Amino acid sequence: MDWIESAAAEWYPLPIRRLADLPTPVDAYDPKRRQYQSVELMRMLDQSRPSDASRILGVTEVDLSIPMLSFLFGQAQLDGPVALISLCRLRQEFYGLPGEDKVLRERTVKEALHELGHTFGLVHCKEPECVMSLATHVEFVDTKQEQYCTRCGLQLVERFASPEEEV
Amino acid sequence: MKKNWPILVVDDEEVMCESMAAWLREDGYLVDTAQNGQRALDQAKATDYAICFVDLKMPGGMDGIETMMEIHRIRPEASVIIITAYATVDTAIQAMKEGAQEYIVKPCNPQEISMLVSRILKLKKLQSENAILRKKLTRQYRQHDIITKNPRMQEILALTQDIASLRSTVLIRGESGTGKELVARAIHYSGSRADKPFITVSCAALTETLLESELFGYEKGAFTGANGQAKGKFEVANGGTIFLDEIGDISPKLQADLLRVLQERRFYRVGGTQEVEVDARVIAATNKNLPEEVRQGKFREDLYYRLNVIEIQLPPLRERREDIPLLAEHFVHRISSELGREIGGISGSALKVLMAHDWPGNVRELENVIERAIVTCRNGTLDEQDFSWLQRTPAAAQGWEVPDVSLGELERRAIVAALERKGGNVKEASAALGIDRSTLYDKLKRYEISH
User: What is the pTM assigned to this prediction?
Assistant: First the structure.
């Protein structure tokens, strides 16, 4: 959480607050797929969002999916208040490798910046090194930099004309 | 937003619709959802969806295949992707037979969908470009693309129909950009030669020797580099029409050669000894005052009369101002669609600016001006401010009054101004003034102008 906070603070000139842990909703579990429905977790996050917070980012350990897709690294409402990332498939252990803190830190920061970017209106970027590029494999996450490209970065700057608060 | 390619997701499960829509929106697409077939059809009537994801099994009402067929009835161009959790070969085959573009089984890998969508949209983009190009080609050949409500232009259009199937030579006169080639094409494509070639030669663009081999072709060894026999434009146009643009610029030798072709309908290739017979209708065009060129001995009188069997004089745009709004709307519609910009039209105040302009470059200038305005326009309508750069030109031109001085003084001032514009370059200044370099030197001496 510290990694995400410091990375977000670098890009978003908004106050950041950490909320207490929330229980993972049992209803979200799909026993057939042995995954959690991302939509349910997003709904819970939206309900838990404090009234003074313009954005809420959830971080979970569980494996996420939606009915159409076999997995998700994260999800966000485009230009909306809710974003969610899962650490499950960002961990080396998921792929049968020994855990590496540095790798997990980099991937987590990238996914957090990516989903937060969506909540501030950014769509997928064609620049593979931009954190907003679409990653459908963990290798693609590793290709990205922990930063927005100039074009996406400028769009964010334009957004911050009015003060907002982010959690 | 990739607004040009809206996507519809149809599934009876709200979670499926919303999560899929959210995922596609992150990619920048405009996505709508519908939870049953009927709702999907209502939405397809209102929006031209590029892709529709349709779930195969939807309880109650229409199933996926029925929905797909109905969508295709409303939007034949839409690509339907059938989604199913029941992966059987039978349903896949049926869906494809009924016109589904693809068939996917949920849940699938995110990369699979991402690649599928981008592949379909790439194809759609190519199809749309292809359609624009086809339209562009047909448009060039159709006579009604000359847009006018001007009585003189309408008389000319009627004349092009009357003379379309004749063999007589036509001379089209008019300032640059008045549409001389468009009229020539209208004549060709309205007549009996329409299915034969229409060949354009810009006479001013080439040197005498190049133009000669361009028109008449050459034999092997006719000159250095002539490694084989080549057909000239006259031969290529056989049975059809040859359009000789800027005919006023051809050299005396070519004038003589051309006269012979017009009289005898035969010629020699460059370096050739065998005569080639040709049946090509000649339509010539010029922005020069040919009778004046004849009077000055620069253009052969006999050739002039050969070319001028039927003469068409196109009016400049400033003499058919009533056509400016029509043409402007036409260009806005055409160019915005070619450039993929959503421009609804031109505001009244912008039209006033266009009406006030003198259009020295005529319809071509208007077309270019509209294109520039569309490229820089920030709203959905071209407004006065989109043409602000244009306003300076007519103001300067209209503000010019003939000074109360002698003709000699007027000439002296014109020479000084031309030299200033061309940075003291006598060759360029003489070209701009339309006189020989030696004449300009004489005048510099006479008016004691130092440069």
Answer: 0.51
If one counts the domains in chain B, the total is 4
Nearest CB among B1, B16, B26 relative to A68 is that of: B16
Task: Write out pLDDT tens, residues A94-150.
Answer: 999 999 999 999 999 999 999 999 999 999 998 999 999 999 899 999 999 999 999
CA gyration radius, chain A: 15
Non-local CB neighbours of A23 within 8 Å, separated by 6+ positions: none
Task: Note whether B438 and B388 are same-domain residues.
Answer: no
- Asked whether residue B83 falls in the same domain as residue B108, the answer is yes
Binned at pLDDT 50, 70 and 90, residue B400 comes out as: low
How far apart CA A130 and CA A110 sit, in angstroms, is 9
Query: Considering only CB atoms, which chain A residues are within 8 Å of B56?
Result: none
The residue count for chain A? 167
Query: What residues of chain B lie within 8 A of the CB of A44, using their CB?
Result: none
Cα B120–chain centre separation: 29
Taking the C-alpha atoms of residue B234 and residue B73, their distance in angstroms, rounded to an integer, is: 49
Measured distance CA(B22)–CA(A76) in Å, rounded: 8
Beta carbons of A67 and B106 less than 8 Å apart: yes
Domain that holds residue B10: 2-134
Are residues B309 and B327 located together in one domain of the fold?
no
Asked if residue B256 and residue B188 are part of one domain, the reply reads yes
The ipTM of this complex is 0.84
In a domain, residue B146? The reply is no
When divided into structural domains, chain A yields a total of 1
User: Do residues B158 and B246 share a domain?
Assistant: yes
- CA distances (Å), origin A98, targets A71, B64, B126: 22, 46, 47
DSSP state of B12: S
The verdict on B92 and B197 lying in the same domain is no
Instruction: Spell out which residues of chain B touch residue A33, defining contact as CB-CB under 8 Å.
Output: 107
Alpha carbon of A14 to those of A54, A61, A152, A159, B246: distances in Å? 10, 26, 18, 12, 67
Whether A129 is catalytic is no
CATH number for the domain spanning A13: value is: 3.40.390.10
Q: pLDDT tens digits for B254-290?
A: 999 899 999 998 888 888 888 888 999 999 999 998 9
Q: Is the pLDDT of residue B187 over 50?
A: yes
Tokens standing for B371? 């294109």
User: Is A122 inside any structural domain?
Assistant: yes
pLDDT band at A86 (very low <50, low <70, confident <90, very high): very high
